[in-house]
Amino acid sequence: MLKAGRAQLRAVAHAVVTRNESLILTLEPHAELHTRRLLAGHRDIRVTSARRTPELNRAVGGVARSKHLEGRAVDLAGPGGSLRHLARQLRASRFTHLYGHPTEVIDEGDHLHVAW
């Protein structure tokens, strides 16, 4: 029973990493670099959205000039406390270079929107 549980956890972790990677690869190089740095320090955070087509952006209710359309934004999800902590770090990094001066850090309630 314990072995099956560990195998399932590994499979879920692999699926999350694979999905994160596929979304990250759609970003512009600057946003990709900073997203990777951000995720390396916050293992419980995952990417839920990155570059979008105009059709997808409209379908999800994105704004017309969304930075997702340019591959310069990500939406992040994870435990609420982790998202709030990350939002504070990102807002502070506008002045410290830690995460590459994000131009937008928006707490959307169920996810965090970050753009460079």
Word description of this protein:
There is one protein chain. The chain is α+β, with helices and mostly antiparallel strands and 116 residues long. The chain has a single domain (2-115), classed as Muramoyl-pentapeptide Carboxypeptidase, domain 2, CATH 3.30.1380. 47% of the residues lie in helices and 15% in strands. The protein contains four helices and four strands; from the N terminus they run H-H-E-H-E-H-E-E. It has helices at 2-24, 29-40, 54-59, 80-93; strands at residues 46-49, 73-77, 104-107, 112-115. It has a four-stranded antiparallel sheet with strand order 1-2-4-3. Strand 3 and strand 4 (112-115) form a beta hairpin. The protein is globular and about 50 Å long. The protein starts with a helix and ends with a strand.
